[in-house]
Specification:
about 300 residues; alpha/beta; Arc Repressor Mutant, subunit A; D-Maltodextrin-Binding Protein, domain 2; seven-stranded mixed β-sheet; two-stranded antiparallel sheet; 10 helices
Length: about 300
């Protein structure tokens, strides 16, 4: 049942005129007639009839009018309450983020959003990408940050990060003499690698294989601190996004860019397609889209 049809019927009953009801609702008289006809067809009764001067309701029309007034009133109350909810700009958002990546751009977006919407509470959960994805599928997280497949129809996504990986090493490493690192230079190195929860794990191994060797992995971890401590102890090399590399003390860890083809950390805000999202979550996604559009 179309609520607009009920509103139209109420106006016809109020003014006892199709033309007056059409005028008050800013629609044409034929549209009014069509809506009333649709109601009559739906209920299987005549709702009103015209005498020489005005429109009068039938007995059935009187019964339906009382119910229509209650239905429209309830609908308007729901609409008003939802409008109040939107205006309050309150709520909670649950977001899963990966442990090992420094996502400066996301931090900046989050800070700007909190300034704009101080009453919306954001809860961050730091776990591996596979756990983030599983939590989105089961509904315990609203939004997650990870690297979805481009052709994955299960999710909606907003790409926001693309950061090239660089090789990090101890300052005494033989690789320190080079300004740019070719993958073939890494053949004798020991790797401190992302755990297989991360797509970068497989991407790094694949690039090494393309260069003609299988990397010697001494540690796989999802903890960035553990990774950097191993490198600082001269126990291996690792690859991290360039934004993280810029924060290192060169006396402890140095970094060098990779030759082409470069590997990139690519991240997106991801949520399950067709899943219910709170007004707070929808407002956050809209805010992010607008902010990214401004920065292009």
């Amino acid at each position: 049942m179309d609520i607009k049809n009920l509103e139209c019927f109420i106006e016809v009953a109020r003014y006892k005129s199709f033309s007056k009801a059409a005028e008050m609702m800013y629609i044409s008289q034929p549209s009014i007639s069509r809506m009333i006809k649709e109601l009559e067809t739906q209920f299987g009764v005549m709702l009103c009839y015209r005498d020489t001067k005005s429109v009068r309701l039938t007995d059935a029309g009187e019964i339906i009018l009382r119910q229509a007034q209650q239905i429209v009133s309830s609908f308007q109350s729901i609409t008003a309450q939802l409008g109040d909810l939107k205006k309050m700009q309150t709520g909670k958002i649950h977001i899963g983020i990966p442990q090992i990546t420094a996502i400066t751009s996301f931090s900046n977006l989050l800070s700007a959003f909190k300034n704009e919407y101080p009453n919306i509470s954001i809860h961050l959960y730091e776990v591996g990408p596979k756990k983030v994805e599983a939590a989105i599928q089961e509904g315990s997280l609203d939004i997650g940050i990870f690297t979805p497949s481009e052709d994955d129809d299960l999710y909606e996504k907003i790409w926001f990060e693309q950061d090239p990986l660089e090789v990090i090493m101890h300052p005494t490493s033989r690789l320190a003499q080079y300004k740019v690192i070719d993958y073939k230079m890494l053949i004798d190195e020991e790797f401190v690698l992302y755990s297989n929860d991360y797509k970068l794990h497989d991407m790094i191994i694949d690039e090494c294989k393309h260069a003609g060797f299988k990397p010697k992995i001494v540690l796989e971890t999802s903890q960035r601190d553990w990774m950097t401590q191993m490198v600082a102890g001269n126990l291996g090399i690792a690859m991290l996004p360039s934004k993280i590399c810029k924060s290192f003390d060169n006396k402890v860890i140095i970094h060098r860019p990779l030759e082409e083809p470069k590997l990139y950390l690519r991240l997106a805000l991801v949520w399950r397609k067709e899943r219910y999202l709170s007004y707070a979550a929808l407002e956050f996604l809209s805010f992010v889209k607008n902010q990214l559009a401004k920065s292009e």
